[in-house]
Protein 1
Amino acid sequence: MKKGLIFLFVFFAFIESRAQVKQPNIILFLVDDMGWQDCSLPFWDKPTKLNAIYHTPNMQKLAAKGMMLTNAYSNAVCTPTRVSLMTGMNVARHGVTNWTNVNSNTPTDFKDSILKPANWNYNGLTPERFYSEALNHTVVATPLPQILNEAGYYTIHAGKAHFAPTGLPGASPVNMGFDINIGGSAAGHPGSFLASKNYRQNEKDTSWAVRGLEKYIPEDLYLTEAITREAIHTLDNRNSNKPFFLYLSHYAVHVPYDKDIRFYQQYIDAGLTDTEAKYAALVEGMDKSLGDIMHYLEKNGLDKDTYILFTSDNGGLSLKGSRSGEPHTQNLPLKQGKGSLYEGGIRVPMIAAGPQIKPGSVSKQYIVSEDYFTTILQMANANPKKVKQVVDGKSFLPVLQGKQKNVDAQKTIIWHYPNNWTNVNLKGISWASAIRQGDWKLIYFHKQQTLELYNLSKDIAEQQDLSGIEIAKTKLLAQLLTQKLKERNAAMPSWLSTGQTIAWPNEIFELSNTNQVIK
Amino acid sequence: MKKGLIFLFVFFAFIESRAQVKQPNIILFLVDDMGWQDCSLPFWDKPTKLNAIYHTPNMQKLAAKGMMLTNAYSNAVCTPTRVSLMTGMNVARHGVTNWTNVNSNTPTDFKDSILKPANWNYNGLTPERFYSEALNHTVVATPLPQILNEAGYYTIHAGKAHFAPTGLPGASPVNMGFDINIGGSAAGHPGSFLASKNYRQNEKDTSWAVRGLEKYIPEDLYLTEAITREAIHTLDNRNSNKPFFLYLSHYAVHVPYDKDIRFYQQYIDAGLTDTEAKYAALVEGMDKSLGDIMHYLEKNGLDKDTYILFTSDNGGLSLKGSRSGEPHTQNLPLKQGKGSLYEGGIRVPMIAAGPQIKPGSVSKQYIVSEDYFTTILQMANANPKKVKQVVDGKSFLPVLQGKQKNVDAQKTIIWHYPNNWTNVNLKGISWASAIRQGDWKLIYFHKQQTLELYNLSKDIAEQQDLSGIEIAKTKLLAQLLTQKLKERNAAMPSWLSTGQTIAWPNEIFELSNTNQVIK
């Protein structure tokens, strides 16, 4: 019996010491190209027409278990958001202002007749340990998974990476500090979501192939399902003495809208076009994945110790050709969509659940991509001694845990998109910078050389430009935006005609208020 | 206190139930192209000149902890051995009789002026679940890792796979039932062992690139070291409630002999040529990997519960150009080398350590590649209900555990190489079938249409052909070889001149003993 007592003592001492250093598991569930209303869960003060179309019961379940952030933002396109998530740097600072090509040294901007895009970091993110003087057009930083890994986390990448072009160190999630990479590469979308196409485009050009999931082909699993199964399989085989960080970054709901036959027909029956039914099915498949992950956590008693952060990397796609209906209307009442700094391009769903987050709670605190870096490090209690980059993100963990009750209306978020995303020549798509502080948002349109000011609490649709009325607010935000852009060494577009970089937003303010125009 | 007692009871009950189903860990440490004497550990009754050249202290340490098998065999080239390991099928039955190309539908045989190679399975191994009528020139089987995986094992592939060409299901270790794939693909050798070359050949043709190890590039790690570190990293992050199967299948010591500066100079100082010093350094780097794995097991208290099986996939390379010195002499006293059914091509090192294996023991029992499949399943206590293939392998676990004291001299092993490996037109290289029973070995040379008989206990160098003297033994073995080849549906070469398949070995015996010759 004496032996037993000693054993007990040792055992409890062990439990105790583990409790002291307990770190929660963290799941960042990132959806690709999902709009703010592309779900049955309303992120506004009322359900919208779009909310009535989609079926996402698991998002609803997660919201019931945690907190919705109704003013969550991303960047306007994917790689900028992903680099911000991984580095905590604002897009103006990291300079990966547009999506990166699968090929290195190849900017992705469409040709324009008026502006030359900024000299941006089109070679994407380079993890610190691969730093070399020879690399150009790249931002070097200490990535989130590496910090978590060094803090004792088992780090899993599942799905889309898209941090840098093929062949560069940032293309490989294992170089970012992920212990495991499931299907991530330089590709910004899958060749195909279909097992019957081997999750790849064709045999000649396999740049967009999703690799390592071949074992799910005989079961004919849709890519979203295959990634989820493999992620759960990896969790199931992990060392449970370590906390885990799962970056479940779905290729869904980006194009190609391959038909997911599990969910498609009901949307056709509901009267949607073929394209929109495919899109809605892609959304529902993503939601099922969320449900499967939640179920796995519950079944294994992990849900209490695990944070789930759910969000998207930019607003919903609203381009002609890809979506049905009139272009740029797919996110109404939000204006425009992916590629724009109007709300349609940057406002995204956001739900968080986990330790000390009150079930069924809601916050209007506005947050943005780089804030996740700092938030996750705080959740993990991981304070890296040295991080190569200047971190712009602010932790919103106090918001999630109810320690910060009121909206911090002094917080500023800036966006910067000095690129030409696509061939649409429409004010709002591409070529802009913006700032939000409190309820106010100022947008600087690079090509038009104009400023617009909106009060989002009253005008989420951005219909009433108040820049000519709220002069003081316009001036203040133009100055603040200018200051932030300069502070972060933001690269600016230039005029093709003169080669000169465009004016700063505060200069635009001064000029428009003295009735001058510069070009 | 009552709670404590209940807790103790529950805890011990748990220990008890785990003990009942306890399965050992298993490591299959496979070296590529390593000859029988390419180490400081003699696998003969005396040390040889070659043994004096190489430094492999960790192989010696492993042998001291376990058993050496001095009559261990493989096939004459790599893929045939690997397919036998994975399926338990003899090479004549699985029909992947030569190494597979990185491209599908592309046999690897050199053109010959006399014989047409057998219609072999040049599309390699297809795991059962990928079975489809459409696949041709492939063998479909239930692979070892899948069976182990289903029996509760965590299965890790590290290093060279080479089971099937690119794009086919067998190319991907995850399709074979491995939970984790570190660096395995369709490639039979690495583009480069050097981090400075990113472990790949060049940027245009990356078919031989070893992927997923980019994080070791900044430290400039040699490929052998990078694979070992990643394998240990994976073990360290595993779920320790599961037993593991680690298939550590080194790219070493295959060409290219890239200089490993950690070990190279001492061999130059000892008077070796540049080529041979590079080769010896490659061997020593592989031995360090073995040592690192053993150290990891010891440090984590796993060595008592873990089997290590160490062997090679074929005999040492002895071709002109690749090795220094006179070709086909690099394995003396063994005749010829890789690609031959003389002992130089098929006799390999073999050490096994683990539960119930007596330290410092030696067995002369002859074994071959397909026997590992059955042995490992017996070690794992995994009895699959259904296996697609007919299994030829016999477990040698009773030998290892000392339960079978004497050599089973009735055991037969057959080899079958109806292919043209390379451009060397020399009897012994390519084009042969062979059988061993007891001390006797009969070789059938397809092109020469002759039989040779050797007594290996007296003549390991195969210098004295006894086929004209030991007529009865020759007849018996020719019949037995014929019977086994027919039973296993062995594909035979054919005469280019007539299109007819070559004769069976028993026909050769009959003809040579009635003084006739057929062509």
Protein 2
Amino acid sequence: MKKFLNDPDDLVRESLAGLEAAHGGILRVQVDPLFVVRRDAPVPGKVGVVSGGGSGHEPMHGGFVGPGMLDAACPGAIFTSPTPDQIESASRAVDSGKGVLHLVKNYTGDVLNFETARELCEAQGIPVEAVLIDDDVAVKDSLYTAGRRGVGATVLIEKIVGAAAERGWLLPDLAALARALNEESRSIGIALSSCVVPGAGKATFNLGPEEIELGIGIHGEPGRERTAIKPARELVEYMIDAVFTDRPLNRGDETIVMVNGMGGTPLIELYLLFGEVQRIFRDRGVRIARSLVGNYITSLEMQGCSLTVLRCNGETFRLWDDPVRTAGLRWGV
Amino acid sequence: MKKFLNDPDDLVRESLAGLEAAHGGILRVQVDPLFVVRRDAPVPGKVGVVSGGGSGHEPMHGGFVGPGMLDAACPGAIFTSPTPDQIESASRAVDSGKGVLHLVKNYTGDVLNFETARELCEAQGIPVEAVLIDDDVAVKDSLYTAGRRGVGATVLIEKIVGAAAERGWLLPDLAALARALNEESRSIGIALSSCVVPGAGKATFNLGPEEIELGIGIHGEPGRERTAIKPARELVEYMIDAVFTDRPLNRGDETIVMVNGMGGTPLIELYLLFGEVQRIFRDRGVRIARSLVGNYITSLEMQGCSLTVLRCNGETFRLWDDPVRTAGLRWGV
């Protein structure tokens, strides 16, 4: 195993120290329990927005903490859920009296631990609403999952809901917005290679030299099928068909589209994929009004990509366009 | 070879089509000859800043075209210099009458072709100044290079000089600034793996399962030595020693530091490296006043990193902090 690390057990903590060193103007890292929090938290009069999950998906979630997005992120060990005390402490740290929204990717451990944390918060008088994100159309149940997995939509929802929270929306309205956005989101991923979890020291799964996996999960969970590598335009057609079959889009619909890299895929390939996506969307009369291309929800150094499509209306675009200032996503003031 | 592409010969062009599709608000892609140019070029009263080089280093350079950075970028084939007619056409497209600055990484093909393009421009009455960037301390001469290679400093120089051009600096002053910044910049890289050039279909070089290469070039050119993988803190010490030996820094000096990924290294590792860099800088009394951590000058899907250190003064920081709006680097308005 060749990785830039010292002891695998220290990877998450040491990486977060570097995150704080690089972005100390917008966030700080709290240890024991471990979480990343906006430097100016709690922001008076604002609902706190908290997410979290296993590490290894950077920049998600710690890289999305900052003005206009998350108030706090709870990083678990690699591909392992954060504990309830991390989530409870982070929620307390960002509560200004307006309550806290939990954005939870649908994995069994995350769901249970966020639920326990919610109970702990409510016992202290902190109102919490939790919204599950389950946009991955690849498979219905999976390793670690009852129902669908939560993947790329998390990035888009954190951005949009974060903007609404910054504008002063109240907790029930934010939760309703997050649920509506999740309803309108669909994703699917493809792996060209596995990743190596540092503690394990070997590949999570193995693919042949010309083999790829369609519908891969972000922890290397099995997808729909393995097949030989195909031209990019066929793979993009496959992904768009998978997404559109599950959530039909009509001519004239407007969308935000993310072409996401899994960590080991170069940007030159991701932009090629986005070009193919745009061509097919144009043929189908569906408009890509906003887009993200890059590494946003990764699986360590896995080579692969995912496509996320979110159907939007004017209000969503206004929130999308609001300023955001995080390590992983930044625009506006 | 598993990559997201159609025909290897179309990779660069198709990827640029995707870049334009995603960032059409700030840039357009001109074909025949091929270059990326600011949508609003030529900007009246402004010197045009043009760079370019082989593709495969994305987001450099096309991802750095936009307000506050480059006016145009000329992409060659993968790891191959752009041709003089690309550079000449791009220079003409961005010249507002104030002349054009060429920022050239020191590789033999780039140097020759930018030089020919400069002569072609000057024959048409367009003043051109060219500045060579040669910050890589690893080796003196190399494959494709007389003297040192130009690597990570290019990103920092394009940002800072781009800001100065946006402020209305004149051509001789911009050239002097770029040369001074290059003098103050040093870099070195480490590879954990090779990359695969699509046209070749196989790894450029081979490393053993526990072997790494110190001082690697961004095209896989040989570095200083091969060694067994070591803990990150030892590798960071090695890189800092290499940089500081070549360009000593004193207590109290202020710097911009970039920890750059080569394309296949996950962000969790890059932030860990940055944390180690900061610790050692603090011990040595040198301040990291600004930083970049991420994939900025890559080698396709190579796993590896590079460290770039730029010694700065107050004016440099003001230019650094100016707004920039490109695909690959974005802040401010």
